[in-house]
Predict the structure of FAD-binding protein.
Amino acid sequence: MTSSQEIELLLTPEVAYDELARYRALLDAAGLVPGQADFVHLRKRSVDARGRQPLVRLRADIYRSAPPADLFGPWFSYPSVQQATRSVLIVGAGPAGLFAALRAIELGIKPIVLERGKDVRTRRRDLAALNKEHLVNPDSNYCFGEGGAGTYSDGKLYTRSTKRGDIQRILRILVQHGATPDILVDAHPHIGTNKLPYVVATLRDSVLAAGGEVRFDTRVDDLLLTGQHLRGVVTNTGEELTADAVILATGHSARDIYELLHRRGVLIEAKPFALGVRVEHPQQLIDQAQYRRQDRGQLPAASYSLVHQTQWQQRQRGVFSFCMCPGGFIVPAATAPGEVVVNGMSPSRRDSRFANSGIVAAVELEDMDVRQYGALAGLRFQQEIEQRACQLAGNTQVAPAQLLGDFLKKKVSAELLETSYQPGLVSVPMDQVLGAGLAERLRQGFQNFGRKIPGYASNMAQIVGVESRTSSPVRIPRDRDTLQHPEVRGLFPCGEGAGYAGGIVSAAMDGERCAEAVLAQVAAGL
Ligand code: FAD
């Protein structure tokens, strides 16, 4: 049996991020000298910036004999499902779809993954065309394609979910497929857009190696419904595919899927979401505010998380930061021509000169025209603002922008700052893009954030529109226990697009849960 000693320490960044100095400090704290420990396993690492100087909190296990074998993986194996008698169609190869596929394999079900976009490598060309030529391919963009919306992202892996066990499982699957083991250690783990494509391709390889199928350029355009039983789907080539069940994991941007469900009489509901802008600051400004040092040295690029309750026309709404990307880039996340949508991503080293974050206001059902548009009211609200952003900025992927200080003073910006947003920016008063209510709420939010971070709400920053794809504006309901649609047997709404996840990790966890539910329901005869 292996025994270990747990050590918790606060160290300066210079020691904490230097492997040898850290090793010595940990042994010293354990009262050991080099040679007396067999292995030091770092278990947790977080930056504590509350004091006068930022410190790094470490938790480690020190082994005086060989550490347990399961510390290093591999933790999972994927048995062959080539001869499996059960199969599931999984629509969408985002985190929800891919993790549903792997879990299905573990459970002995053959997954057939249908993805409208391209494999992760080929997808890159469409992103280049989007950034340089302003061409939006409606099937291959920052939201659609292998790995889903999570591939060309920051790859932040934290979630508000409290299911620690499941989170660790997802992180271990990612490590087994090529992600850095640091994600098992860091309090705020992230992978980075330069490393994610490899991880995604390796996840797909595991599905294929076990005998599952992954079909790219395969868009689901219709449903094979027999009464209230979903037997399969029809693809863009007219092919009809059937299976024991369908996991629908198409993400929050698959508007054609919501329209299809609506048209075919499958119950969907309008859902609150959030909408706003992306704000871009020099990373150095955020570093100085958070770390109180001129130079962050070896510390990671600093981030922030902000929230404020606003009031406008007797309605209270939260304004909050969303998907903050330290050392990152703003990217064009539109999924159709004629709309401008922005989002953020960063490389693993988070070393760009810019910090960007969504700053969004909650949009509740009473803010939308539910009477006219019913279940699609949120979607129409979102679409209208995205199209207005595009028109006001000149009908390309150039995005409307305003200096933050000018926005607060309702002044047109005479010029803009340098930006990480490759298609370019044009000065537009953001009130015209957002409308009075949203603009006023964001102003109240920014004013409050300016009191929390010195220099934040100034002309050293600019806001870029619009950050509208924060979460799904539609819910596809499902039964709490069976995870099946309440009216359509065989349909398992899954992930962010159905309204049951927000972010890579929670979508992956939901994918796993849906695969488990498919097994339970198919075994019970649906
Ligand atoms: P998605 O990832 O949206 O995947 C859905 C898939 O379904 C897509 O691949 C799409 O092509 C496919 N599809 C859609 N319609 C059809 C159809 N009709 N037929 C076949 N296939 C279809 N989250 C984080 O946790 N951390 C981050 O750092 C982060 N950064 C982000 C940065 C950007 C630029 C973007 C756009 C998102 C970011 N997110 C981040 C959000 C995260 O990517 C999503 O929450 C997550 O990907 C949702 O997973 P999903 O599998 O439910 O849906």
